[in-house]
Amino acid sequence: MVKVNGQVIEDADGMVLIDLLKCKGYDLTRIAVECNGNIIPKAQYSHKILENGDSFEIVGFVGGG
Amino acid sequence: MKIKINGKETETDGASLYRIKSAFCPTVQNPVVILNGFQTAEDLPVQEGDEVVLIEKGKMPGKDVLEAMISARHTPHVYEKVKQAHVAVAGLGGLGSNIAVALARTGVGHLHLVDFDVVEPSNLNRQQYGIRHLGMLKTEALRSELAEINPYINITVDTVLITADNAAELFAGDEIVCEAFDKPEAKAMLVNTLLEKCPRKKIVSGSGMAGYESSNSIVTKRHMKNLYMCGDGETKAMVGRGLMAPRVLTCAGHQANMILRLILGIEEV
After folding, report:
1. Is A6 domain-assigned?
2. Which residues of B touch A (CB under 8 A)?
3. CATH of segment(s) B2-72
4. What is the complex's ipTM, to 2 decimals?
5. What is the pLDDT along chain A (65 residues), one digit of tens a residue?
6. Which is nearest to B250 in space by CA: B216, B199, B204, B205?
């Protein structure tokens, strides 16, 4: 079982992080991703395999300041 | 008893504000009186350890008294902490220029201002600049503004484009970095870079403050151990929806207050 922003995602074990992010519609240039309390460097998005018990927090940024 | 008058430890028998006033500035007709951060015209009782500021209304006081005056409006014991703090503001636009002004007024002792750009006419609708600043570097324009507001803080500036390659080194001396960029890719770049490379640094970021939606949708959230985000999280600047002072300043106020809380050791939003 994998959690993303507090929500349980079924059948995500074994998936690569970048596929989950794309499937959820995230723009990879406008987010920060944390897994179990640690930031995931962008270079690892395509290597990080989702494991049972992982809890992800994905933060998106919008323009304006 | 010992109290502080205009920032100086003073021995006095005066047990109330009126008695202290007549002892220390009998000739001043219309004084401003502040007791422990609260301005009052009443003859309130004064106790050991209290901080009193007495000053002539509308007059420019001496340096020591002015600094005591600025800090005296804060809650007691805030000033000692903010004076030691090192805070960076990354991006000196609508968010950053207003956040820097709030932090300067609060007496944050070391402000590090970073921006590569100059002031242009389209900035005037929400940024802390005036006509006289047009064409100036934002770093220099804001430095001169802050010096007018609070001359007793240390300001350093870097006129440089912040990138993933220079960010960690650039902000090495700052405990707290305020992300105040305009473009979402730049926001994400700075937050990712600092969270990866500087695991102890606190970051206070802004996202979602365009338009004239309700002020009440702008909130402060803690997203990761070291990342705080202010804004509504979704209302982006776009064609047909501009950035205007009221909501930008609301978000800037959220960021500045979260920075103050972090300086005071409070990590909850």
Report:
1. yes
2. 91, 93-96, 180-185, 187-188, 191-192, 195-196, 205-210, 223-225, 227, 229, 231, 233-238, 243, 248
3. 3.10.20.30
4. 0.96
5. 899 999 999 888 999 999 999 999 999 999 999 999 899 999 999 999 999 999 999 999 999 99
6. B216
